[in-house]
Amino acid sequence: MENSASLSCDGRTIVIIGSSTGGPRTLETIFLRFPLVDAAIVIVQHMPHHINSALCRHLAKTSRMEARVAEDGDPVEHGTIYVAPSDIHLKLVGNRTISLFDDEKVQYVRPSIDVAMTSLKRSGSDRIVGVILSGMGSDGAQGIRHIKTIGGATIAQDLRTCAIHAMPRAAFETGNVDQMLPPEGIRERIIQIAGTL
Amino acid sequence: MAEVPCRRIMVVDDDVFILEVMKELFEPEGIGVVTAESGDACIRELEKGFRGVILMDIMMPQKDGWETIEEMIDRGLMEGNIVAMLTAKDVPDGELDYLKEHVIDYITKPFEANEIIAIVKGYLDYLA
Predict the structure, then answer these.
(1) Residue in B closest to A87 by C-alpha
(2) Which chain A residue has its CA at the smallest distance from B79's CA?
(3) Which of A22, A138, A158, A194 has its CA 20 to 30 A from that of A187?
């Protein structure tokens, strides 16, 4: 699948949010009454598998976006939130198609935020946004560095608003974070970049 | 196992005062509170069938909160539960990262009553 995929000519905004312990609270604030935006949003949340669908239901209920657990082969569509399922890695092929694949855990986790973010490709027409929220460890730091390298916008949660600040701090320490924002600021920035539908 | 509807929490803490405070906070909200004064007591409640949101203290004698979670994983008792750590202790960098997939939140003491009620209700909605 990966070899046959190519970057599309029509530009798209793709937002990848990496989140771990304490992140669901932040997600709730970001997506409360969140409008329908012209972006595909992929959430990689470290969590037990039995709450994957519950998180989606919650996001769909509180925002105007469609929300679903990502499935292998899903095309990324604007106006939709894709939640990475537990126990399997997620990547984007050609910035357009979700691929789920089994592999070793990376930094103790699967799905890995780094794996998802580093699968994104530079594209003249796509706008890429990487966001790191509260969490233990440093998953996402490498991904943020990659997104910056390919010309994307990078955001980390303001440390004072995190239940656990290790993950956004690790991202910040790469020197590749554009903005450190509280949840409300992250919400506004995503809306500003993506634009509403 | 299917997701189990519930409006129950379990508070795991060796501090009896905290257990009482939590009952006073949550029961008027219509949320049942099971209390466990140790990690072993928590495991026993899970083996009896408790499913819901678990607020787990870290610093406990004999078996601390992290060791209790490890035992829950080993015994297959995580299914249907959401675990949040409830503690005044900072998260140690690095050494416990392997448990992060299993811990949804980290609530620090002292906490505001309204804040913890809102957080727990949010997680109970996940299990509804």
Answers:
(1) B101
(2) A50
(3) A138
